[in-house]
From TrEMBL:
Start and end residues of each N-acetyltransferase domain: 114-249
Keywords from the UniProt entry: Acyltransferase, Transferase
Organism: Nicotiana tabacum (Common tobacco)
Domain of life: Eukaryota
Name of the gene encoding the protein in the UniProt record: LOC107803422
Pfam families registered for this protein in UniProt: Acetyltransf_1 (PF00583)
SUPFAM superfamilies tied to this protein: Acyl-CoA N-acyltransferases (Nat)
Segments of skewed composition (Polar residues): 11-20
Annotated Gene3D superfamilies: 3.40.630.30
Chain spans, region Disordered: 1-20
Protein's name according to its UniProt entry: Tyramine N-feruloyltransferase 4/11-like
Amino acid sequence: MASAPHLPTDPISSPNNGKTFDQKRFARIRVATESDVPHIYKLMQQLFAYHNITHLLKSTENSIASALFKPKFPHLSPVTALVLEVSPYQFPYSTCKVDSNVINFIEPPLPLSADFDENLQGVLLGVKEIDLDNMPLIDEESEEFRDVKNQQDDVFIAGYVMFYPCFSSFFDNPVFHMEDLFIRECYRGKGFGKWMFSTIASKAARMGFSSIDWIASQWNKSAIQFYTQMGARISDDFRVLSLAGKALEAFNDDSDKGLCS
């Protein structure tokens, strides 16, 4: 016999104008749409601030929107972003209670082609119920990350992940490169990061991909521990190299002077 539906406690305003939630919270992961770009950019800013490298952030809302939805180079592998949304209320898509230990995936087509991202916009990838164990969650940035386009009130963006398919000569099948994975501070330690990473890993496995690759800062021991616990291996044999700025611009010479000398 099914249990009675849970009626969550209404969120209340906290003294700092944020939202306080108790008992339970509902969450879902979906593919980002163009209207999510301002939130993704703010999350990206927080990610760079967390790493203390805000001076290196060159992306803008326009460049993010272009990469995700209007690529300048459509023949290159498209980028996909997933967003994590949370609410004190059950999402309209979910017609029944979702067990907190189960992820219900809706299997959309994921073609390995230039329309990879277009086929996924807005697709729901997972729904979940989170038990807060009588420990209230205070979201001081709730209004800043409110999903105003949503028909349901009190839906907030809590995190994002950005990735793209690419070729690797180490494998016979494509791989995912995970560019960013970020969860806002008040939502950390509640399983959301694991859920988002598992979502990508599940898709990669089901699509026959060979690997997921990404970069982690050496000082970020907690992140490295998190990923190794998820099964990742650290490569000590390779270093990340980049050619950027003036070093790259030096090659922008139509005359190709010196290239053959």
